[in-house]
Predict the 3D structure of the following.
Amino acid sequence: MEKVRLGRTNLVVNKMGWGGIPIQRVGEREAISVIRAVVEMGVDLLDTARGYTNSEHRIGLAIEKLSKPVVLSTKSHVKTEKIYEEVHESLRQLKVKKIDIYHLHNILSFEDYKKVTSPEGALYGLRRAQREGLIDHIGITSHNLNVLVKALEDGYFDVVMACYSFLEPEASEKIFPLAKARDIGVLAMKPFSGGVIEEVGPALRFVLSTPDIVTIPGSETLEKASENWKIFSAGKPLSEEDRERIEALRKQFHHHFCRRCDYCQPCTEKISIQFVLGLRSIFKRFGSQAQEFGWVKSLIERARNCSECGECLPRCPYQLPIPDLIKENLAWFDREVARPGRE
Ligand code: SF4
Ligand code: SF4
């Protein structure tokens, strides 16, 4: 099974790790047994986040008594040095004394990047945690590749995490060569583009055929975890059939799939466009409990203010019909998800 060295961290792990978003959707007992099975199968890197509700906690319960070592990767959205307290909370939840990789979670704009790297910013909080031996390596995750390019150029981070799938292949040109040249590790998230791609085989073989990166598909059932693991351990290259399927799916999604890059911002009504366009994928990954999250409710309500001014349209490099997609997604939410009797 192919191993990858995660740049200057010198951590050597399987080319396929595991992502902790989906286990939020199942009961605790099932989640724990899936995580244990995943580690027993041979997965040696588990990724989670403070923001994934009970994911850190469940991983902590699952790995507590396991003898197999795993690399733990987690993250926090906190942008100030108070992230240091988040590290302590992650350690408590994961029930470990040290975390291998701690990331700044989804730094989308240059404004936020400036904030997290300023003297009172989160990077300094993580450096303090690193000095005190609470974390080994510092990473950054973003859906905005330009922010990751800046992070790679600055060299503050040991690992970067970017979206990468056959629907979002841009990181292979923009991020991976630069990371390799600077000896910075790469974790590639969302091999199924947040649940949009249902063809597991072509999607995984596509990311697994890219050198020097570690992909982290999530799974909430043993069946899915085993399927992913089988594809990884078979080590087969992309077939001609895979390539044809990928081309067909790329055509199908080209003008409908939001790459979450935020290039369309700022919206005149302060709508989080990528959030609304990714609404179905959010509910697919987090389950219907997502409608109870305060931030989800407020972002949906704000999206209802879209005035169809069209200012965002020329800024989207993929020519997505943004106002139409917002309407479509809100109608889907009202029809399929919102509880009966919602005002
Ligand atoms: S069309 Fe809607 S989403 Fe686009 S900028 Fe105007 S208000 Fe914002
Ligand atoms: S709508 Fe277009 S520009 Fe905006 S986040 Fe999605 S892909 Fe990027």
Q: What stands out?
A: The chain has two domains: 3-239, 273-337. The chain has a mean pLDDT of 94. The chain has 15 helices and ten strands. The pocket of iron/sulfur cluster (ligand 1) is lined by residues 267-269, 271, 273, 306-312, 322-323, 326 (CB under 6 Å).
